[in-house]
Here is the input.
Amino acid sequence: MREANLESTTFDRCDLTGLDLTGATLRDTRFNRCKPTIHAAAWGTLNGFISVVLDGRQRIDTPTAFGQFLRRAGKKAGATVDPCAHAVQLRALFGTFLFPDGRLRRSKVKRKNLVKGTGTDTVAALLDGAIKAGFITHVSGREWYECAKGQTYQAMVAFARNLETTSEIDMLLNDFCPIKGCTHIGL
Here is the structure.
């Protein structure tokens, strides 16, 4: 299942030992009664991670939190390398416009919907940086924003799907991430 789109997929009573989920898109992916072997799957860098639900109750929305869960469940330390918080926020920002498979979700979004949630000041600064870098454009005279077209759009899609960076995305993340030498995507 390497690099498979597992959005809204349910695994029920599965033995995940040896299953390779490296690069798989995990969005609202459910693992019911799989906890005893969930740590035994190969997860790679969690670059396709968006959210999972465990046993119908526990929702995990960040690769960092899922990596911590895997380590508590028995995964060896260092077996997963998580993207930095700014990369996760940028991916969520791009995900406002895109579906996990890269299709356009919305062509225009209001600013208040782009910066809502936790860390609002950081997300607002990241949005302003994405505008400056040309990934998102402001619709003049309004509070609407839209994503770029062409090659810049393709870079957004690649980052939102698999955390593939371009020099522009690297420069944007370097401007915001306080960690010296951070690779941002966890590799």
